[in-house]
Amino acid sequence: MSAAYTGRFAPTPSGELHFGSLYAAVASYLDARSQGGRWLLRVEDLDWRREVPGAADRIQKTLETFGFEWDGPVVRQRSRAALYDRALARLRAQALLFDCSCSRRELEDTERYPGNCRLGPRDPSAATGRRLLVEPRQVRFADRIQGQFRQDVAAAVGDFLLQRRDGVVAYVLAVVVDDADQGITDVVRGADLLDDTPRQIYLQQALGLATPNYAHVPVLTEPDGAKLAKSRRSVPLQGALRDTQLRTIFAMLGMNPPADLGRGSLAELWRWGIENWAVGRVPKCLSAPLSEGLSLPK
Fold first, then answer.
1. d(CA 132, CA 163)
2. Is the pLDDT of residue 262 over 80?
3. Nearest to 145 by CA among 94, 217, 88
4. How many H helices and E strands in the chain?
5. CATH of 80-175+197-207, one of 3.40.50.300, 3.90.226.10, 3.20.20.70, 3.40.50.620
6. What predicted TM-score, i.e. pTM, was given to this entire model?
C-alpha cells in the first residue's frame, strides 16, 4: 500500500463512545498512520430518531482526548442527501431499483426478502421504500484479517433495502456512497459488519464504484460472551485510565506492548503503536471477550 491510503472512522451518535468502538478506531487509525495514510472522521447520523443529543460532539471530544488526529473536516451524513438521491436515481435508470410497500412487521419472520414487490408494490396505497434488485451470484473478497469470504447475496438476504418507507436512507447505501465520495481505500472495522460487506460490494459494483480493502477486527464482548453493553462500557476521560486503555487495546490487537509503555507522553504511546502495528498480528476470530481483570470502565 502507498501514501494514497485513506481510511476512516464512522461512529453513530446513538450514545457515548464505548470501549468496543474505541478499539475499532485505534485499529483503523494505526493501520492508516503506519502507512503514511490519511484518516477521516465521519458521523453516521442519518436516523435522527436514534441520535442522542450532543453525542456526536462528545464522541469527537473523546477522540481528541485520546490523541486521535483526523484529516480534513468532520463529515456528517445528514448533510449529504443529494449524493444519496443521485445514487438512487442512477440505479432507477438502470432498472435496478423497485418500490416496496412491505412493512418491517410483514417481513419479521423472513431472513431473506421473498420478492413480494418485484413486479410492483403489493399495497399501492401504502408508503414505499426502495430495494435493490439482486440477482444470484457469488461475491468474493479477501479480508486482510479474517481471510477469504464469499456470499451469494441473493440467497442470503435477497433484494435489500436502500431507502426505508419513511424516506431515511439505509446504511448500506450511505456507507457505499460516502466511502466512494471520500476516496476511502481501506476500511478497518468490527467483524459484526463482515456479513454486510458482500452486499456493500454488490452495490458498489452496481454503481460502478471502486471496492476498498477490508479488514474486520474481532468484536469485543462482555466476559460472558454477551454483546458489549454500551451504557456500561462508555469511555471515561481520565488521563491515567486513558493511557491504560490504549495500552490494553494494543495488547488485544496482538501488539505485545512493554509494561512501561504509557509512562511517558501520549504522543510517545501513539508513536510506539504506529511503529509496531501489524495487521497480521490481529487475532483471526470474529469476537473476543473482555477479561474481567482488565482496567476498563464497569
1. 10
2. no
3. 217
4. 9, 12
5. 3.40.50.620
6. 0.92
